[in-house]
Amino acid sequence: MSVVYAMFLVTLCMVFTTTELVSDQIPMNYFESCGFYTYLYAVSNSFILYLFTYVLRARFSGSPGKALDFDAEQFIQRFTAITGLNVQEIPCEANPEECLEQPRRFSIRPPSASQSQSLDQATEFRVKLMTSQNQTSHGSLFLRLGAIVFGLGTLIYTGLEFLVFFEVPSSCPSWSVLLGINPILYMVFVFIQMYFVFMHARLNINRNKIVAKFGMMHLVATNTCMVIRTLVKESVKELQYRVESEHEKLDWSKMFRNQDCLKEQIIGDTMENSSVYLFPFMIEYSFIGCSVVYSMWSHIGENPDYVVLDDNSGAQPISGQRHVREPLDWSASSVGLFLGLLALVTLIISMILHFALIDQHDYTTLAITIDSSIDSVINVCMIVGSLVGFLQIQNLVLINSHHVQADKIMIITGFGISLYNTFTSLAGLLNTSQQVLEDPAFVITNGFLELIQVCVQILFITDLRHRRIDVTQTSRPGRQVVTFLTICNLGMWITSNFEIQKVNSKPDQVEFYGFFPWIVIQRITLPLCVFFRFHSCVVLAELWKNCYRIKREERISTNSTASVISGGSTQ
Fold first, then answer.
1. 10 Å Cβ neighbour count for 115?
2. 105-109 and 86-90 as β-strands: parallel, antiparallel, unpaired?
3. Residue bearing the bigger pLDDT, 103 or 561
4. Distance between CA 515 and CA 246 in Å, rounded?
5. Domain that holds residue 124
6. Is residue 456 part of a domain?
7. FRET pair for 137, CA 20 to 30 Å: which of 172, 205, 302, 557?
8. How far is 137 from 152, CA to CA, in rounded Å?
């Protein structure tokens, strides 16, 4: 039901946004001023505050440090008063570390029963905790750091949107006080969700699951609606700029009838000029929020923790050893690092040349040729690197894949790249215009190479997620490739961010599909392409760190075993 609820909200958002664009009867931002987005923000903020004030502060916390606050004597007294039974705790006879992993045991007996009967009929009594820690993080450290960076860009974007409200006259048809309240609510939502995602990435909620499921799905729907809303608004701005610059003889009055309210603004002009650089931050922040919250939703109620410690049990948390920080091992990374940096510099130079020459009529063809050539070379290098990496990582050890799930986010965003390159290649194949600037064979080849690169990279990452280095291995097979692919994806993420800002970066496609259809195609597929590159960079960096790391306890165990063997051989 929670999924149906989220789908209902997203459907409403799509219908409302489309209606604002095509209908003559209502102004732009009508549904935002009617309270739909206010509802999204208010409920999202309320749910996150509920998590902070109640769930995360509950007495039965899944954190071993907070579990020390549990008063066993008070619990026994309250249980006895309610049930009329005599309850006594059975001491744990194992060592403190094993006691931490075992449930607490209590003896329950009627008031008239003897002590001996109590011990003979002892039953296990476990207290289910409100929250627990998942075995793996719902979002890697790099992904959560990305949430902070993109969240700050989103706050700047929304802050400018809030300031624009004070420059819009109340006589404007779309003016509403909610247009000033909504940015405040959204900024609060962005900030507290950013904090929640970063600080509680391993949270599992085990009680009040219905509230948790609907709340998490509401957060997913809110982030999705923000992506839809932002893409539509920025597409409208791009169309308006096109109409004003080229004076097209089209009736765009339906779409831009409220833009007259923004003509004499200072901050409004600043926002229009800067939004092209800021709105990708908003989209990527929403994608990260969706992915992390969805992962939390999928783990609600799974593997609940029943372990509760008190300060009289004598068992000390073993978290002291878990938080021992080890320096990163940078071995077997130098070649991949410098080759990746070379590819990164090449991509950035290509991007600068492309956008510097694309608007110069005499050099437009040269700009497109340079950009396509560099992209093709980088894609070929990444394909070869992935294939070499496939062969090298076969020397790693396969691990139990029970807890390793398929990366659905990478598959979905990879589908976006497939769509974008298919549209691009189709335009190169079928474009019969005499003003084609790029060789059709070049367009098709470039699109085909990127499709192959995406598929091979997804397969390589999927295989590597199920492997890790053996404690006895001294080499790091495949790590150079992982380093190279990480930096290459970083470079392609940077160039894709700039490509999404300019529709005329693909003039042949604009000529073939038309300006408005190409905006729609680009605004739908390019955000997925951008996030695919960012997510790939994050996942590869995480695999670079985890798959080739030998844990401290494994190293100690191996050294101890070697010492025992050597000692036995000397005897």
1. 11
2. antiparallel
3. 103
4. 12
5. 68-128
6. yes
7. 557
8. 22
